[in-house]
């Protein structure tokens, strides 16, 4: 039996082709993808294409588009065995992270991919990314999906979506998962590392929780920064601070007073690291103790993209009983190392 994969094309470089009269890139009609890539017909799965009415640059992808993708997957969940989302590369980690929190009880593969060069380019990485992603999106054993989470496939590597970040705007190998091992790798053989795969062991039926709040602010701390500027911004529900190393910041009493004032106004403060690898460890250095004193929340080894979208999903979400801090601190779908 051939598995059915629904391909959702949102936009991005992968769906571009060069206009040889002007020399510029333009989106092509993705409904004609089988003409562009006749090798797709050789796949051991049936592919059905649903393009966005207007392809979007990934910089225009946000909460509303995340909801559109999530609900389209929900609408078609029972009709398809897997889902492939083609997406621009710049914000793909945000979308993958957001979907991982929104798609509850997921038991089927949701793979995101894109490319650094257009699909019509002679040196493109688009074809390999697309074809191998289809393989992973249709991979079943004993009538059960092998991958049951949101993942990104890029340049021979399958990665957990909410663990990824884009670290290169130039190289084909553009994505990394610094704090979690790869889920699979393609070479002569297409491999899966099953012990790294996420499983939702609950008996929750698949559904979409599309609660997203935009009342989040992300701020990177830097040497010499005037924290007094914080007092000039409106009150927000969550402030995510990207701090030094394993969780350090300026040790002055003024720093503590400023952050405490923000907390007293009802803002949750989440702390993530500026380091690509590793995570937050309150108490490791004296200059991190300030966060324990003011009741800040450790982002542990989450990526910035994951921390932001997780906070957006949890803020005032009526489907979560208990405190924001309790839910943020535990792993919901493999985004934190336990």
Characterization of this structure:
The protein is an alpha/beta fold and 338 residues long. 22% of the residues lie in helices and 22% in strands. The protein has helices spanning 33-36, 63-76, 92-102, 126-137, 253-264, 289-294, 304-314, 324-329; strands at 3-9, 16-18, 25-27, 45-51, 82-86, 103-104, 110-113, 140-141, 144-145, 150-154, 157-160, 165-166, 175-176, 184-186, 190-192, 207-208, 216-220, 238-243, 268-273, 297-298. The strands form 6 sheets. The chain has an 8-stranded mixed sheet, with helices on both faces. Strands 17-18-19-20 form a 4-stranded parallel sheet, with helices on both faces. The longest helix is centred in the first third of the chain and has 14 residues, at 63-76. The two termini are 38 Å apart. This is asparaginase. Belongs to the asparaginase 1 family. Its EC number is 3.5.1.1. Residues 4-194 form the L-asparaginase N-terminal domain.
